[in-house]
Design a protein that fits this description.
This protein is α/β, with parallel strands linked by helices. The protein has one domain: 3-Layer(aba) Sandwich (Rossmann fold). A five-stranded mixed beta sheet has the order 2-1-3-5-4, with helices on both faces. α1 links the parallel β1 and β2.
Length: 164
């Protein structure tokens, strides 16, 4: 699915059958219930090629994924991928050799990053088979949803300012 040129995307990444790896989908499903005009909401597995295709032509992307950097489970990381590289640990728990971090760096190299690309990584604890989030990760979901809604309000404000 290629995004229309003026659209914005919310992408939840992960495997819902690998416990905390499914947190990106959980966050995105919570956002589906919000009134978010101009945003398309999608869930992806984390395959880099699929991500490159999904955000092609998008004006803004907010991506949510589980990460494993060694800090406390449930910690929320926010990275502006248009101004900084994702840390090497970002794709540590990916089941793909070409995952989120690699897709972002390839898009950067090719000059095809969306104008706005914000990545929320939620520190996971349990990546074993299962469909439930660990309590620490589940407790972080409302905070991530609130942060993303604030991010969206900020993007809407930028659009309004450009039109005025």
């Amino acid at each position: 699915m290629t995004a229309p040129r003026s659209s914005a995307l919310l992408i939840g990444v992960g495997n819902p059958f690998r416990s905390d790896d499914g947190v990106g989908g959980v966050v995105i499903r919570r956002l589906r219930g919000q009134n978010l005009p101009g945003f398309t909401i999608v869930e992806e597995t984390g395959d880099g090629a699929e991500l490159l295709e999904a955000w092609q032509g998008a004006s803004a992307v907010i991506l949510v994924d589980a990460v494993q950097s060694g800090v406390a489970p449930g910690t929320i990381h926010r990275l502006d991928a248009t101004t900084e590289k994702l840390p090497k640990w970002f794709s540590h728990c990916s089941t793909h050799a070409f995952g989120v971090a690699e897709a972002i760096e390839l898009a950067r190299t090719l000059g095809e990053l969306p104008p706005s690309l914000v990545v929320y990584g939620i520190e996971g604890l349990d990546f074993s088979a299962g469909t439930l989030l660990s309590p620490e990760v589940a407790a972080s979901v409302p905070g991530v949803v609130s942060s993303i809604l604030a991010e969206i309000r900020g993007l809407a404000g930028l659009k309004s300012a450009r039109i005025a």
